[in-house]
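Progress report, Aim 2. The chain analyzed during this reporting quarter is listed below.
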Amino acid sequence: MTDKLLFEEGAFINRPPLFCGVNYKFWKVRMKIFVKSIDKGIWDAIKNGHFVPMLENDKVICEKP
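Predicted structure tokens for the chain:
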């Protein structure tokens, strides 16, 4: 992999770590920290899926319109 990449990994908070196909476990930890540093709610959405508000009418739970 001697070719220079178009997008290099950034050390700033606005540039995520670049995955170049090697050492996935290390990149995964760094990406998790990067996303959590932006907003913990984003990480919760990645981990748990998006939040769907629900309504309860007469003991029946349905999705809020």
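The longest helix spans residues 24-38. DSSP finds two helices and two strands in the chain. These observations will guide the mutagenesis work planned for the next reporting period.
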